[in-house]
Give the backbone structure.
Amino acid sequence: MQIEKLQNILEAILISAEKPLSIEKLLGFFQPEDLVNRNDVKKALFDLQQRFTTHGFELIETASGFRFQTKEEYKQWVTQHWDEKPAKYSRALLETLALIVYRQPITRAEIEDIRGVAVSSHIIKTLQERDWIRIVGHKEVPGRPSLLGTTRQFLDYFNLKSLDEMPSLSEIQDIDKLYPELDLKIQEELANEDSDEIESENGTDDVNTMDDSQNEEADDKHQSKQD
Amino acid sequence: MQIEKLQNILEAILISAEKPLSIEKLLGFFQPEDLVNRNDVKKALFDLQQRFTTHGFELIETASGFRFQTKEEYKQWVTQHWDEKPAKYSRALLETLALIVYRQPITRAEIEDIRGVAVSSHIIKTLQERDWIRIVGHKEVPGRPSLLGTTRQFLDYFNLKSLDEMPSLSEIQDIDKLYPELDLKIQEELANEDSDEIESENGTDDVNTMDDSQNEEADDKHQSKQD
Amino acid sequence: MSNQDTNQELQKRQTTPSQGELPFAIVHGEEISAPPEDLYIPPDALEVFLETFEGPLDLLLYLIRRQNLDILDIPIADITAQYMDYVEMMRNINLDLAAEYLVMAAMLAEIKSRMLLPRHEEIEDEDDPRAELVRRLQEYERFKKAATDIDELPRKGRDNFDTSVEVIRAPKIKPEPHVDLRDILLAFQDILKQVDMQKHHEIEREEISIRERMTHVLSKLDGDNFVEFQDLFTLKEGRLGVVVTLMAVLELLKLKVIDMVQAEAFAPIYLKPVSGLDEYQDEP
C-alpha cells in the first residue's frame, strides 16, 4: 500500500477513534491483502506526527497508544463548547437587590417587610458572593441585624460612577418611556420634561397593561441576546 | 489575529465539536479582543477546506455549518471501530422520506395516494425521532392534517447544504403523446400483415392483437433506448 | 398450504375466465396449469418474495419491468391477468392482503373492459383508459427511484464518520448571570406598585444620594477604626456634598446605626458603628 494512502487511512481511523490505539490495534484494522506491516504503520504514524505539528490538534502517543488531541494553546477557545449558558436571576433576587440599592442601608427584615415575603439566605449569599452587596453595619435593635448596602463592584458592573446615576423614583415610574435606550442622561431629560405626566399616569388603572408591555419588551431583549 | 493562528483555533474547535458549526456560532467563540471578524472566519474556513483535501478526513459544509468527518473512501477501515453494521432503512421508509423531500409540505394522505399503500405510523415516528422530518403546518382541509417537511438535520445527515443539492426527480412521460404514433404503427402493421403470427399465437380477438402489437412496439422502443 | 393447493386454486380460476379476458395461462393456444415461472418457489420463500412489494403499484411496476414493457403502452389484459395471479397467490398463502391490492384489481378490470370497447377514431379527445394508471405508475416510479437515490447519498454513520479527539480543556468557569440595570429598575418599580397598593407611601421619594452616602459613611466606620467626624467630608464635593454627608450621618444616628462620641466640648467628634460600641467602651 502506498504510504500516502496508509497515512490517510490511519488518520481516518485515529480521528474517529474514541480511545487511544496501539500499533497492534491499528494493524488489526487491515486485511492481509492490504499488505501493511508493523513497520509501515510505525513509519506512517511518525510522519503523521510531523504532519500535524503546525495544526490546531496533534497526534500524541500515550501509554495505551496514539490519539489525536487538541493543542493546549487553544484550550481557551475549545473549552467554550461546554460553556454553560449563564442562568437568570429570579424575580425575588432582583427585587431584593433593588431594595438594597434604593433603600440602603437596609436590614433583611425591612426587605421582608416591604416585599411581604421572606428573603431566602440563598439570595443574600448569592449577592454577597457576587460582591454586589455587603454588610455595612448593624442596626441597634434587638438581634442587631446586619445592614446591607451596595459595593464599588456593583457600581462598576453597571458602569455607574455613583448611585446618583441610578434613575430616581420618579424616573422609574416613567420607565416605559425611557426604554429601549437606557441612557441615563436621556432619562434625566425626559424625567424633567415629563414629570407632570408621570404623576398623572401613576394614578391610572394601566398598571397591568404597563407591566405586560414591559415584560414583553424584556423578553424581546433577552431573545435578541441569545441569537 | 494571524491567519495561521485563527486557522488552528478553528481547527481545534471544529475537530472537537459534536455538531456542525455555522460561521455565526464560530464567531461566538472569540472575544472582542481577539479581533476576529466574519470575513476572517470565512476565509480561514475556506483555506482549511483546501488544507484537508489530501487528508484522511475533510472539512465539509452542510445545512447547519461546518464539520470534520472521515472521507468516504476510507470507510471500510473506519467502520471496523464498531461491531454493529450501520442501520439500513427499509424501502417503505425511504420512499416515504423521498416523497416528503421532493413534495414538501405534504400530508400523510398525499403520500399514501402516490405510494398506493397506507403509510405506517411507525415510519413517520421513526423519521421524526431521527429529526429528519417535522410537522411544518396544517393543511386547511377537513381534519386539518399535518403537513410534513424535512429538517436541517436531514440535510446534515446526508452531507447536503440545501435541498437544491438533492438529485433531481426523473421526468414523467405523457401518455397522450403516444397516440398518433401508436395509430400509425398499428396501421402500418396491419398493412404489412405482420400481425398474423401474433394473432395466431393468441388465437383471439382484436383487443389482444392490439395489445401485442403494442408490446412489440414497446420492445422496439426499449431497444432503441438501450442503443 | 402447499404449492399444490395454490396450483389447484389457480387452475380453477383459469377455467372460468371472464368475458374477453385473455387468460394468462393459455399460451400458444395451450392451457398452462402452473403459476408463472418465477412463482416456482417454496411457499415460505414466496411469502418473503411477495412481501417485498411496497403495494399494488410496486407489484405492477415489477410485472411491467420484468417483461421490458413500455410503461406508456401496457398490454393491460396480460398485466391484469398476471396481477390477479399474484393477488391470488397472496391470498392462497394467507398473506395478509392489503385492501389496496384489491382496489387495484378492480381498477385494472375496469380499464380492461374500457379497452374492449371499440375506439372511435373520430373523437380526438378520447382518453386512453390506461392514462390514469400510467400516470400513477410513473409517479410512483419516480419516487421509488428517488428513494434509491437518497439511500445512495453518502451519509453520516455509514460512509462518513464524526471525529472524536481528546480535548485539552481550560478550567471551567461558571458564568455569572447577566443583569441589566433595567432589570433592577423594573424590579423596584414592581415593589413600588405593590407597596402603593398596600401601605401608603411607606417608601417615599427619597434622595438616593443620601442613602448611598449612608452606606459610604458606614463603610468608613467599618472595622476597628474610630473616624473623626470631619474626615467624613470631602471639601471637593462642595456644599451639596457636605450637606448630603451630614444628612446621611444624621439619618444613621436616627437609625441608631452609628454613635457619636465627644470627650468634651470642642473636642473632636468621633463616629463609630453601634456594633463596635462594646469593644471601645473603655477608650477615651
